[in-house]
Structures are given as C-alpha cells and as structure tokens.
Design goal:
With 588 residues, the protein is an alpha/beta fold. It is 53% helix and 10% strand. It is built from 21 helices and 13 strands. The chain has helices spanning 4-18, 43-51, 55-65, 89-101, 131-149, 165-177, 200-216, 218-232, 236-259, 270-273, 277-286, 324-339, 353-365, 401-419, 424-444, 456-459, 467-486, 502-511, 514-523, 527-547, 556-580, and strands at residues 29-30, 39-41, 72-78, 82-87, 115-119, 153-157, 290-293, 296-299, 313-316, 343-349, 374-380, 383-384, 452-453. Strands 1-2-4-3 form a 4-stranded antiparallel β-sheet. Helix 5 links the parallel strand 5 (115-119) and strand 6 (153-157). Helix 6 (165-177) packs across helix 8, helix 12 (324-339) packs across helix 13 and helix 14 (401-419) crosses helix 15 (424-444). Bound molecules: arginine. Arginine binds at residues 119, 122, 124, 159, 161, 328, 346, 348.
Length: 588
C-alpha cells in the first residue's frame, strides 16, 4: 500500500505539472507548524529559482490547481512561498480503511527478500550472563523481528564465545580440585561419563575463582594456557569437559534468553569456525595477501582515505595461535558456505568497532565475501547506572542479568499492587510482562549507538516515555473494547469514519504513518524510531480518549467509527511492541 506521504506527493506533483512546473517540486513534508497545517510543501521556493519568478506566485498557482482535490481540505499559499496543507477527512478515512483491511496494516512485503544473518547475543560460555550482553540481545532480537515482518529471511545466530582461555581456566581449576576425575587420566581410553561433573552454579563459581587465581599465580596461568591449547588441539579428556561446559551453559543460557523472549535460530559458536581456519589462512598466503611481520601472520588493510591509523589484520600470532579476528573471518567463510547470506549484521558493543573494521576489510580484500554481500556493524553504547558509570550492583559488582530482571519485576509488582486489585498470581505474571517492557523499551527507545542510563525508577513508571505507559495505553483500549462488546456489539464489525474532532484527526494521521515508520526503522536499523512512533501514537490516543466519551456516545455511527479507530490503534500498537519483543497483559 502506498504511504500517505506518497499519496500527498502524487497529488502535489500533478498540480505542479498542471501549473506548468516540473513535477519533482511537488514534495511534501510533515508540517513544522502543526498549529497552522498538517503537511507542507516548500517546492515553490526551489522552483522560483529555476523559473525566475516569485515563489508566492508559484505557490498560488499550484494551490489553485488543488482547490477541488479530493486529498486536501485546505490548501493555502503563504508568504514567502509555502504551501500549507490539511488533508480532507474523507482521504484520511479512506486511507485508514485500507490499512485496516490489510494483515500488515499497509506495510508491504519486500519484493526480493534477502537472506540476512544477524550475529547477536554473543554471550561467553561458562561466564554468567551480565547486563553487557543484554543490549545485544534486545536490539538484535528487535531487528530480527522487524526484518521478518518486512519479509526478509532473518537468521539469528547467537555466536557463543566458546573458544577462549576461560575453557582452559575451568579445566585447570577442576583439575586442581578433583584430580581423580577420569578426564585427567591420560591412559584412560573408555567412554567419558554422560553426566557433567558440575552444576551451573558450581560452574559459575569455578570460572571467577580460576580467573582471579590466574592473575596472581603465574604457574597456574601457564597451566590454564596449556589446557586451552590442548582442548583446542584435540585432547580427548579436555574436549569431553568442554562438551560438559557447553551443555550445562547452553541449558542455562536458553532459560535466560527465553525469559527475555529472545530466540536464536542458530546456536553456533566460535568453536564451529575453527575447522575453516587452516584452509582460509593457507589461501590468504597463497594469494599473497598474508605475510609475516615480526613473526606474526598479517594482512594489510589500510586505505588511502583513512584518517585514523588502521593496523594490519592479524591472522596468527607468532606461536601459531589464532585470534578473535581469525575466528570471525573463519565464521564468515562458514556462513557464506552454509547460508549464502546477502547481508551479515553484527550487533556488538561499539567498543569493538575497530575489530570489525579489520574483519570486514580483510574479508573483502581476500574475497571471503561475494561483492554483493554486505557486512554491517551495528555498534551499541554502554548501559550506565544513574551515576553515569557502567551499570553495577549496589555492592559495585557486575550485575547478573537474572538479578536485574528480578529487581525490575519486584518494582513492577509493587506498582501493580498499588494500582489494581488483582489476584497474587496474576499480579506476578503481569509484573513479569510489564517488567520486560520496561527493560526492553528503556533500552530500545535510545539510539543504539548512544550510551544510556538504566534508570529503574523511570523505566518502570506508568507515565512518560516508557514501556509500561504503552502497555497501559493498550490495556485501556482493550478495556473500552471489552465494554463495548458487553453492550452486545461487535468491535470487529465497526467501520472507520471521517474524523470530526481535532484530536481524532490527529490520532488518525499518526496511525497512518505506520508503514513509513517501519520501512525507515528497518533501513536505518533503528528500533528507536519505532519507539518514538509508539510514544506519539499512545499520546495521540490518550489525548483523544480524554476528550471523547466513547462508550456514552448516543450517535451509533460516530461511536462505531471511534471503536474501529481503537481496533486499528490496538493492532498497530501490538504489532509494534511485538516487533520490539514484548507483549501487553490483559489488565494492569
Ligand atoms: N563474545 C563476544 C563478547 O562477549 C561478542 C561476540 C560478538 N560477535 C562476533 N561475531 N564477534 O565480547
């Protein structure tokens, strides 16, 4: 379905042509004087230069042509040459009626769907999930859902950090604690136990202990590095432990992500890329891209236009070990081979930007990706506490994701209890639903690349630009519709009518922006644009609601029109929050 702006533009273009000017001057934009008009066209100003006459003359001629236009109620040429526009109520009604008929509310499915791999989440196995991984999960999930909504084939890959020193550290610590375990018996040739020798809580204690010790104890650290090398080079017993770590960790991660309503299509990790490394490195050497520099193997990726220094991309260290970069390059090889993506998008902390500049340039230069496969880095900022420093627990430690969620849910629970009398169990469930909206909306409503302050107090408020405010608005609409149904009428059968009040029209115009907002948000990978739209729409609805006695209205036809508008707004709001990755409760 055409965007409303395009409907307006087509009408303007025709008027410019008829008045004897080039059609391209007929562009419209949202009015920056909403007190005077809804849309405006500044084309006469630009045309004046080309046609050597006063802009107001052109504006007047064009306005004349639009006098009987079905699209506009009012067209005014004002000095020095603006054309102020108000839409006709019938046009607005028709537009919304068409929207309501469409399953995707006027949003088009892309003609040529792309296959897009979304690399997000990126937790590190055996380390507890912390708030740093929250942003990637939340932003990535919403982009995946948005892309899918528009018809792309989105493949979400968690890309586990499962190939680092942390594995060696855990093995070493385990070896110190329980040397009798069969994994450490070098002469053992049988099958290893199916059951892991630790639980998730033990694992989460083992890693920090080992990590702390390795920082003080040189010999211990070397042992851990040795273990890392061995596990990466096929040591049977250690690999069996690695499998246990993965199984135990992944089970726990799945539970955590499920609570966040984040779902991955692929649970691959850095380790999956390792088999591709030797051939990839060999090919880069054979083709003359990789050369030795101070013992290490590197690829030059400088470009003439660089304003900052971009260091060479290192493939192998002097001891032959591969690096984070090598793994990411090999992951590209694997992804190209298995999925032939048109695009790979990385949702990662913006502090890793240089790493991705290196990876992308190296992948392009050495031909790992097809020329028409694009690589995009969506870097996000840090989530800070109210003190402006990276978010911590009250004691100053790293905040575990589970604890953060529990804190928010508790806060929401208190608020819901104050607000309504609903049974305990429902209050708990509603607290979880609204709590998730508080966290996700609080995050997504900021431009991803910016740092932001995670403010529990503000995010959980029912007022202002928050998730709970949106849910509250949806719940309010649902409740009006339920009461209407109780009067024996069917909201689904109501038809949208022409707007009669200012606030009604304003709400309708806001609703009409849906398809355009979705497309822009996707093109710019900018979920915050959906948030801003949701907030405007919710405000538009609440203003209308406070000025209109919907259920008491005696004019049936008017009432029906309003109810149909509410049904449409609810659909838009619910579609949008679904894309952002949360949902609304029945009441709150
Ligand atoms: N595991 C990494 C970290 O915690 C993030 C992984 C991001 N994705 C990637 N392909 N490098 O920093």
């Amino acid at each position: 379905m055409k965007k409303l702006m395009d409907v307006i533009r087509a009408e303007l273009e025709q008027a410019f042509t008829e008045a004897g000017y080039e059609a391209s001057y007929g562009k419209a934009s949202l009015s920056n004087r909403p007190d005077l008009c809804e849309y405006q066209c500044n084309g006469a100003m630009a045309a004046a230069k080309a046609y050597h006459c006063a802009p107001i003359q052109i504006a007047e001629k064009v306005a004349q042509r639009l006098e009987n236009s079905p699209v506009f109620l009012e067209v005014q040429a004002v000095k020095p040459g603006f054309i102020n526009l108000k839409l006709s109520p019938a046009c607005v009604r028709d537009y919304l009626q068409s929207m309501a008929k469409e399953e995707k509310l006027g949003c088009e499915t892309v003609e040529k769907p792309k296959t897009i791999i979304l690399d997000y989440g990126g937790p590190n196995v055996a380390k507890p999930l912390h708030v740093g991984h929250l942003r990637s999960a939340i932003i990535g999930e919403s982009i995946k859902r948005l892309g899918r909504f528009l018809g792309h084939k989105m493949i979400g890959d968690i890309h586990l950090g499962d190939w680092g020193l942390q594995m060696g550290l855990i093995i070493t610590e385990l070896r110190h604690r329980r040397p009798e375990l069969v994994y450490f018996d070098e002469s053992y040739e049988g099958e290893y136990p199916a059951e892991a020798p630790f639980t998730i809580s033990e694992l989460e204690e083992i890693y920090p202990t080992a990590s702390a010790r390795s920082k003080e104890d040189e010999a211990y650290r070397e042992e851990a590095m040795e273990a890392t090398y061995l596990v990466q080079h096929g040591h049977r017993g250690y690999q069996a432990i690695l499998q246990h770590i993965l199984t135990v960790s992944v089970t726990d991660l799945k539970r955590n992500y499920a609570n966040l309503q984040v779902e991955f299509d692929l649970w691959k990790g850095e380790s999956d890329a390792q088999p591709y490394i030797p051939d990839m490195v060999q090919a880069m050497k054979d083709q003359g891209f990789a050369y030795e520099s101070e013992g290490a193997l590197v690829v030059d990726i400088k470009e003439e236009t660089d304003t900052k220094e971009v260091p060479p991309c290192m493939l192998l260290k002097s001891d032959g070990a591969s690096l984070y970069t090598t793994t990411d390059l090999a992951t590209i090889v694997e992804r190209m081979k298995l999925y032939h993506p048109d695009e790979i998008v990385y949702v990662v902390d913006k502090r890793q930007e240089m790493h991705f500049v290196q990876v992308f340039r190296c992948a392009r230069k050495t031909g790992l990706v097809d020329a028409d496969t694009s690589l995009r880095f969506l870097g996000f900022g840090t989530m800070n506490g109210r003190d402006g420093k990276p978010f911590k627990t009250r004691e100053g430690g790293v905040m575990r994701l589970e604890h953060l969620i529990a804190d928010i849910n508790e806060e929401m629970y208190e608020k819901i209890r104050e607000n309504t009398e609903i049974p305990e169990e429902e209050a708990r469930r509603t607290a979880r639903i609204t709590g998730l909206s508080a966290i996700k909306y609080g995050d997504l409503s900021n431009q991803a690349s910016k740092d932001y302050v995670f403010d529990v107090e503000r995010f959980t408020s029912f007022e202002g630009d928050t998730g709970p405010y949106l849910l509250y608005t949806i719940v309010r609409i649902k409740s009006i519709l339920a009461k209407y149904e109780e009067q024996g009428k069917n909201p689904e059968q109501a038809g949208i009518r022409e707007p009669r009040s200012e606030s009604e029209k304003a709400l309708m115009l806001e609703a009409a922006k849906f398809n355009s907002v979705m497309e822009t948000a996707y093109a710019e990978l900018a979920p915050h644009k959906i948030c801003a739209y949701l907030y405007d729409l919710a405000n538009g609805f609440n203003k209308f609601y406070h000025e209109t006695r919907i259920l008491k209205e005696e004019d049936q036809e008017r009432q029906e029109g309003w109810i149909a508008l509410l049904v449409l707004c609810r659909r838009i709001l619910e579609t949008c929050i679904g894309i952002l990755g949360f949902e609304a409760p029945e009441r709150m």
